[in-house]
Write a structure and sequence with these properties.
Blueprint (H helix, E strand, L loop, with lengths): L1 E3 L2 H13 L4 E6 L5 H11 L4 E6 L19 H10 L4 E3 L3 H4 L11 H4 L3 H4 L3 H16 L3 E5 L3 H13 L5 E5 L19 H7 L1 H12 L7 H13 L4 E10 L12 E11 L2 E11 L6
Parallel strand pairs: 1-4, 2-3, 2-5, 3-4, 5-6
Antiparallel strand pairs: 7-8, 8-9
Helix pairs in contact: 7-8, 10-11
Length: 288
């Protein structure tokens, strides 16, 4: 496995693989890998001949009071894990390599990025969209895999690829969970033992919501009230948002939803902000 730090070298490697007729699968990450990241590599290699993983803690997707400086970094550990699942190249550029002096371009996907995380993190998805577009141009993958844990990010990237006519497939990867149901995240390491034990309420609340979906007495407001009550009654949880949004456009849910909707949560435990979600299917009225 190679570790490449320069854009020109990464482009040359990808061009050589393409000329050989090989397909490139790409998994963009910020590092501090866990089993969820590794599952995305395995998914990429179900279709692609080669796998590239980027490890880049992208400064432009962090707000001024967020955790860029303390975000966990351990390249030696990450490289061993990546190699163990068949990654051929880690692309590990510096911020100066990605954003040289004079860089000023930003890509925004305003409608898809606006609600949910976009409210409390207004510049986050502009940073994500811009860096992903750059990475797609550098790595030149045939497919890129994004986890469904950050479902809004997945939708932003799909919109970006469609709108800009980028020649690659976006493949969703299912959320990978700890044995008790907590969604795997690099930020879980910030949690104290008590916060970690309490954070499982997110998964429990989503499970409960799924059970309620086709109860004739369940509507949007009753569902959201019940989920919020369960989470807020589990200290030290502090809710950023709990919302039900129509898929795939993330429009506000109707009072009596029909079809697929995203139940999305962002909740602080201490200083650590965790996200989770569940796609819920609401039957049409009069149908099961």
């Amino acid at each position: 496995m190679k570790i490449i730090e320069r854009i020109a070298e990464m482009k040359a490697w990808s061009l050589a693989r393409r000329r050989e007729g090989r397909t490139i699968g790409f998994v963009p990450t910020m590092g501090y890998l866990h089993e969820g990241h590794l599952s995305l590599v395995r998914l990429a290699l179900e279709t692609a001949d080669t796998a590239v993983m980027s490890i880049f803690v992208n400064p432009t997707q962090f707000g001024p009071t967020e955790d860029f400086a303390r975000y966990p970094r351990d390249l030696e550990r990450d490289a061993a894990l990546a190699e163990s699942v068949g990654v051929d190249v880690i692309f590990h550029p510096t911020p100066a390599e990605m954003y040289p002096a004079g860089f000023e371009t930003t890509i925004r996907v305003p409608r898809t990025a606006g609600p949910l995380c976009g409210v409390s993190r207004p510049d986050h998805f502009a940073g994500v969209a811009t860096v992903c577009c750059k990475l797609f141009n550098i790595v030149q993958p045939h497919l890129a895999v994004f986890g469904e844990k950050d479902y809004q990010q997945l939708l932003v990237i799909r919109r970006l690829v469609a709108d800009l006519d980028l020649n690659l497939e976006i493949v969703p990867g299912p959320t990978f969970r700890e044995p008790d149901g907590l969604a795997m995240s690099s930020r879980n390491k910030y949690l104290s033992p008590e916060e970690r034990a309490r954070a499982v309420v997110l998964h429990q609340s989503l499970n409960q919501a799924e059970e309620w979906v086709n109860n004739p007495e369940t509507n949007r407001d009753s569902l959201l009230r019940s989920v919020r009550a369960r989470i807020e009654n589990t200290p030290p949880a502090r809710v950023d948002y709990i919302e039900l949004r129509r898929l795939p456009d993330l429009a506000d849910a109707a009072e009596h939803p029909q079809g697929d909707h995203l139940l999305a949560l962002a909740v602080f435990f201490g200083k650590t902000r965790l996200i989770d979600n569940r796609v819920l299917h609401f039957a049409a009225e009069g149908k099961e």
